[in-house]
Amino acid sequence: MVLEFKDLYVSVEGNRILKGINLKIMSGETHAIMGPNGTGKSTLAQVCMGHPKYKVESGDILLDGESIIDLSVDERSRRGIFLGMQNPIEVPGVTNFDFIKSAIQKRMRKDEHLRIGKFILKYESASQDLDMGKGLAHRYLNQGFSGGEKKRNEILQMKMLNPKFAFLDEIDSGLDVDALKLVGEHVTKQKSADLGLILITHYQRLLDYIEPDFVHIMINGQIVKTGNTELITKIDREGYDWVKTELGIDDEDDKPYSLGNCPTKSLV
Amino acid sequence: MMMKIPKYIKNHNNVIGFSEKEIDNNSKFDYKNNQLFLYGTDSVYLYLNNFSIDKLRINVKSDSNIKLFFISYNTKITNIDFNINIHDNSVVKLYSNFISGRRTKQNVYREFNLGYKSSLILINNLTYRGEFNLTEFIYLNKEMSNLDIDLLNIGSNDDITHVNQYVYHNAKKTYSQIHNWLISNQSSKLTYNVNGTIKKGKENSNCQQLNKGIILSENGEIKVEPKLFIDEYNVKASHGAAIGQIDENQLFYLLSRGLSEIEAKNLIISGYINPFIKKIKHKRLETQLKTKIRKLI
Questions:
Q1: How many beta-carbon pairs below 8 A join chains A and B?
Q2: A77 to chain B: which residues are within 8 Å by CB?
Q3: Domain limits of chain A?
Q4: B43: Cβ contacts below 8 Å, ≥ 6 apart
Q5: A contacts of B252 (beta carbons < 8 Å)
Q6: How many CB atoms sit inside 10 A of residue B18's CB?
Q7: B180, B211, B246, B250: best mutation site toward chain A, by most A Cβ within 10 Å?
Q8: What is the largest CA-CA distance in chain B?
Q9: How far is residue B29 from each of residues A146, A216, B43, B49, measured CA to CA in Å?
Q10: Could you tell me if B196 and B229 are in contact, meaning their C-beta atoms sit under 8 angstroms apart?
């Protein structure tokens, strides 16, 4: 399968964030998208998932050649897009078990039935692998989870839902060294010829555990440079200024635009 | 027993049925002159079929632990007026369910007086079709008496609910907590006036109010006025109301895992309501409420 962004322009509340993104991800490939804060990395993932706050001004997102920009969020998910979120949302009163069971059932054909016993075993095994502790199934979705637990729960969901293309948006933030290693190893285990991975990160440390095939640098809403793992080392050592100098990018007037932190607690 | 009482109530040991034609006391407890005397450790079911009660007095003797289920079923306008006196060292858990078979009106007025180290746990299920008016006064009269209210109100169609809650801390070291869970669907209007009073000298008391509301439609309305009247420094108190629509971020999160919008909303709402349902601790009533909620939302 192939996921393709074609000359994509996106705005939010009248501010243009993505300014002509062209990117092609094939099944089995791992792409890393790096860049300074506020350059549109998370926007790219959110837009692909169909977040209603973002407006696609022009361009397209194609999944196996078919546009998905008019599809609803849930339809995109069922077609195989997954977004491991930077700030996983807390949903009080909804257990992890009920949530993931509903999500899996929704993916099944009408004539299929979920085998609960098998499902529970798979869930518990995945939960143990990610060191999530006993009783996760009956805990409320992300409520009272530590930052690391939330991120590991995203990976657990990814494992259960078996997507075709997965964005992992700063999945390394909030993780200590051991948790980072655990998450990195589990994501690597999930790599397969059927999964396209897009890792959004600021740092080399995640990419020490998940080796990307391609590294893209995003500045000011555009992918300005693509390379291999050598780029990561250079960014980690020298930051992004050398890229701007090399490519003659002047982003002084382009203040980063942010919608603010995604709230993890609801008012109600 | 002539009165038609639902099976899930009828089969219990202590059931008192009230209807226009008769009052049928099928319990071990005395009921006379509009007074009911409860004692010991027991569950008691009061079932009212289209019955208006005027000044019923329920006395719970000292050192008792009573689970009281108050269920009224109406197809016409009714008025209910009763008070419960809970004597020292007693615990009363009162589950109230006001059911209307058709759109109608019910006015409920209740008073509670709590003695030394006594506890009142109120679980109020308000899923009434039509107009429902509830006024309750709770007097924490003696030291270390305490109150815990959980109230679920789901309005649909053009239902109207007015609730006035008054809690008086009339003694030192008294504790009260009110948690109202409100959902307004379609054109329903829910109005809440929540009051907590700590009088001068009633130190080390604790008065908490929490009101949460979800409005599911454009025409739905929830108004909450949480008020505290505190005349003593050495106390703890808090109040608040958070009312809004379903959280967009929660919705997006569930949608992003493939749930449809309807399923996602249902899951969020059931998640919101579940903690209330778990407090009922009566399987039959819990299932009954879940079924009703599915129909209402």
A1: 95
A2: 255-258
A3: 2-86+146-247
A4: B12, B13, B14, B66, B67, B68, B69
A5: 51-52, 73, 89
A6: 22
A7: B250
A8: 62
A9: 52, 78, 11, 20
A10: yes
Length of chain A (residues) = 268
Q: Encoding tokens for residue A43?
A: 């926007």
Q: Please tell me if residue A114 touches chain B, with a CB cutoff of 8 Å.
A: no
Q: How far apart are CA B57 and CA B110, in angstroms?
A: 10
Query: Cβ–Cβ of B250/A85 closer than 8 Å?
Result: no
Question: Are A10 and A49 a contacting pair, CB within 8 Å?
Answer: no
**Residue A123 has which token pair?**
């869930």
What token pair was written down for B84?
């419960």
Q: Say whether residue B255 is in contact with chain A using an 8 A CB cutoff.
A: yes
Residue keyed to tokens 């005395």: B30
CA distance A52 to B102: 40
- The answer to whether the CB of B289 falls within 8 A of the CB of A135 is no
ipTM: 0.91
Helix (H, G, I), strand (E, B) or coil at B184: strand
CB pair distance less than 8 Å for B268 and A94? yes
Q: Give B191: exposed, middle or buried? Use CB within 10 Å, 0-12, 13-18, 19+.
A: middle
Which residues from chain A sit within 8 angstroms of residue B263, using beta carbons? 102, 106
Distances (CA, A) of B239 to A55, B179, B196: 39, 10, 9
Confirm or reject contact between A144 and chain B (CB < 8 A): no
Output the tens digit of pLDDT for each of chain A's 268 residues: 999 999 999 999 999 999 999 999 999 999 999 998 889 999 999 999 999 999 999 999 999 999 999 999 999 999 999 999 999 999 998 999 999 999 999 999 888 898 999 999 999 999 998 888 778 888 999 999 988 899 999 999 999 999 999 999 999 888 888 888 988 998 999 999 999 999 998 878 888 899 999 999 999 999 999 999 999 888 888 888 888 888 888 765 555 555 544 444 444 4
Q: How many CB atoms lie within 10 A of CB B250?
A: 25
- State the alpha helices, DSSP H only, in chain A: 41-49, 73-79, 96-107, 116-129, 147-161, 177-190, 204-207, 229-238, 241-247
H or E stretch at B283: helix B283-296
CATH class (in words) of the domain with range A2-86+146-247: alpha beta
Nearest-10 Cα torsion for A82, A85, A88, A89 = -70
Question: Domain spans of chain B?
Answer: 86-296
A157 touches chain B (CB under 8 A): yes
DSSP state of A138: G
Best CA proximity match to B223, nearest among B213, B208, B233: B213
CB A225 within 8 A of CB A248: no
Q: State the Rg of chain A over Cα.
A: 18
Q: Tell me which residue in A93, A106, A262 faces B259 most closely, judged by beta carbons.
A: A106
Q: Which of A51, A91, A100, A264 to mutate to test the interface with B (most CBs of B within 10 A)?
A: A91
